[in-house]
Amino acid sequence: MNPTNISALVQQFPILRRIQAEEEIAWINPEKTDHASSMENCELSMADIDNAEARLARFAPFIKKCFPETADQNGIIESILTPIPTMQAHIDQKYHSHLQGRLLLKQDSHLAIAGSVKARGGIYEILKHTEDLALANGILRQGDSYEQLASQEAREFFSSYTIQVGSTGNLGMSIGIMSAAIGYEVIVHMSADAKQWKKELLRNHGVIVKEYASDYSKAVKNGRALSDQNPRSYFVDDENSRNLFLGYAVAAKRLSDQLKDLDVLVDADHPLFVYLPCGVGGAPGGITFGLKQLFQNAVHCFFAEPTPAPCMAVGMITGLHSQISVQDIGLSGLTHADGLAVGRPSGFVGGIMKSMLSGEFTIKDAHLYDYMRDLLETENIFLEPSACAAFQGPVHLLQNDETLRYLKENHLLEKMPQSTHIAWATGGSLVPETIREEYVHTYLK
Ligand SMILES: *Cc1c(COP(=O)(O)O)cnc(C)c1O
User: Fold this and answer.
1) Contact, 47 vs 118, CB < 8 A?
2) Cα dihedral angle (225, 231, 235, 240), rounded to 10 degrees?
3) Which of 201, 331, 389, 444 has its CA 20 to 30 A from that of 160?
4) Of all atoms in ligand 1, which is nearest to the CA of residue 427?
5) Residues contacting 71, CB < 8 A, separation 6+
């Protein structure tokens, strides 16, 4: 984008000025529609989510065999949903959140195998590709138990194929660990933001890690080019993959059961608010899409992004989606939230979210560490900094003029006492002890 276009955009969308100044903002999506209208021209549907869920069930015996830590859930990778009343009382006192209703934590931070939300989309995408290859090549026949994918013969077959992906860290971990377990050659193209311990962990799994001095987009571009040269190589395209998106969307069906177990009602009089940390958009977008199918107009989804890299907010506000980057408006894209360090959003996800997303919050890096310590001290749960972006929603929902107006206009204010709020904790359980110590002692201005 050239500078003249940018100044015209800033005139048209004044909130961009505050985003350029790295202020924390809340933004309400003016293009959100009711659920039925939002589905009118949508390329995906509930049937696609059901398909993805069934595929994960077919793979469960294989996953159980390769990853014994999933045995108690019979090979289904799922996280718990828990009330966090001590944290809720604490944020009320410390930040004057005035949040009514109940605050819950969805602990994808503790998902088996990958320790982050990427255990949903990333692993699903690899399983889908594996099923396609195995069925096409007679490694599996319809009706076979997928446990046999763990056989020596199957592993040898997959070892002649390559998987490649560009990643800021967590996607590489989920794709890398699962692909290596199946037997593929795996190459993960890591951006400069990726943490050293993630690279080492992957190398220990036999994954080839290529490092780039530049950001995520460059790592993706190079990875894709290299993969395209090899007909036996499959490139996981985080920005455009429908499979990845559907893998994330399955979370909604599981969450619906968990809400029932907690006796949480979701309907017009009992609204559900969900706060999701956002990078390129696939994970929060897929989960939002799934939640909208299940709860329609009763669920209100908000994304949270770091102030130096609010790519989805910039894409949605301007309507330019992947045609604009945070660097175009003068932001660095550099953030301590490595999982969210993305400069350009997914255009595919932005297109679907345009009519579904309620809004966005942005958060300064310093506050990620504050919320991290708050949760650790009150609930003894550790999250990585990126995941803590989720708390910006419940802390600010009732303090911000924009979100307050949304609540009033949608007749939600009077329903707040019977509302439920979910902070989606997207990562953390694999962070090594020494790094956790560092994080706990990190104070930024
Ligand atoms: C990847 C990631 C996200 C966001 O997912 P996107 O698909 O990039 O939007 C959020 N939190 C953590 C910890 C992540 O690793």
Assistant:
1) no
2) 90
3) 201
4) 13
5) 64
Instruction: Give pTM, 2 decimals.
Output: 0.97
Reported as a pLDDT band with limits 50, 70 and 90, residue 341 is very high
Average pLDDT over all residues of the chain: 96
Q: What is residue 330's predicted lDDT score, i.e. its pLDDT? A: 96
Q: Is the beta carbon of 278 within 6 A of some atom in ligand 1?
A: yes
**Residue 259 to residue 265: CA distance in whole angstroms:** 7
Domains of the chain and any CATH numbers: 3-44+69-114+245-440 (3.40.50.1100), 116-242 (3.40.50.1100)
In the reported structure, the alpha carbon of residue 15 is separated from the centroid of ligand 1 by a whole-number distance in angstroms of 24
The rounded distance, in Å, linking the Cα atoms of 136 and 133 is 5
The CB of 122 under 6 Å from ligand 1? The reply is no
- Distance between CA atoms of residues 69 and 90, nearest Å: 33
Place of tokens 């949040």: 99
* Over residues 194-201, mean pLDDT: 90
The CA 123 to ligand 1 mean position distance, Å, reads: 14
Residues 139, 140, 145: CA angle, nearest 5 degrees: 130
Residue 431 CB less than 6 A away from ligand 1 = no
Find the 154 Cα to ligand 1 centroid distance in Å.
Answer: 31
The tens digit of pLDDT for each residue in 378-416 reads 999 999 999 999 999 999 999 999 999 999 999 999 999
Question: Whole-angstrom Cα distance, residue 240 to residue 251?
Answer: 19
Residue that wins the pLDDT comparison between 221 and 234:
234
Question: Among 357, 348, 431, which residue's Cα sits nearest to residue 43?
Answer: 348
pLDDT at position 445:
87
CA of 386 to the centre of ligand 1 (A): 8
